[in-house]
Amino acid sequence: MKLFHKTSALSFYLIHSGFMAFKTRVKEELDSMGGDNLDDLLDDDSLHAYYRNGDSPSYVAASLCPTVEED
User: Fold this and answer.
1) pLDDT digit string (tens) for 1-22?
2) Does residue 41 contact residue 70 with C-beta atoms inside 8 Å?
3) CA torsion sign, 49 to 18 to 41 to 32?
4) 41 near 6, Cβ under 8 Å?
C-alpha cells in the first residue's frame, strides 16, 4: 500500500491556477478600495492560508485595507 500519491501535473496546475485566480481577485478588490499593492501587504504563503480556508477575495481585501471611519 502506498502512503504517498504522486501529484499529477494536471492537479498541480489546477491547484496553482486556482490560487493565482484568487490572488488576482484580491488584487482587483484592493485596487477598487484604493488600497496598497498586495505584494507589499502580504506574501504568498500568508495569502495561501486565506485561500485554503476558503475565504472570499473581498473578505481578504477588506481585512488588509480597513476603512477609516471619521467621527
Assistant:
1) 455 556 666 566 656 678 889 9
2) no
3) negative
4) no
